[in-house]
Amino acid sequence: MNIGVFGIGKMGFPISLNLAEDGNDVVAYDVVPAAKEKLTGTKVRWATTAREVMEQSELIFFVGLQCNQLKAMLEGADGVLAGVKGGEKTIIDLSTS
To answer: What span, in angstroms and rounded, lies between the C-alpha atoms of 80 and 29?
Structure first.
């Protein structure tokens, strides 16, 4: 399954790794570019934009995002909402705030 994960922190990092280890194609994005370094050497791919995650995923997890982080990912030409076109998407919100 093609799965997207937004938020590669304390929860999102292990979730993305477990999903990839189970044979899923996982692509991840975080508003903090340094989060990409955590994924080096793993099976999880890094997306350069939130839109890219949405375009490539059927199942999407929002993990541990704060309101300002979610807003930053939703808006704009490369945001989540721009990538929702075509096909069905299932979104699971695991935010803690």
So the answer is: 11
Taken in order 47, 53, 56, 57, is the CA torsion positive or negative? positive
Q: Are 23 and 1 in contact (CB under 8 A)?
A: no
The side-by-side arrangement of strands in the sheet containing 45-46 is 45-46, 25-29, 2-6, 59-63, 90-94
CA distance 54 to 40: 21
Question: Tens digit of pLDDT for each residue in 25-59?
Answer: 999 999 888 999 999 999 999 999 989 999 999 99
The structure tokens listed for 55 are 């375009």
Q: Report the predicted TM-score, pTM, of the whole model to 2 decimal places.
A: 0.87
The separation between CA 68 and the C-alpha centre of its own chain, rounded to angstroms, equals 16
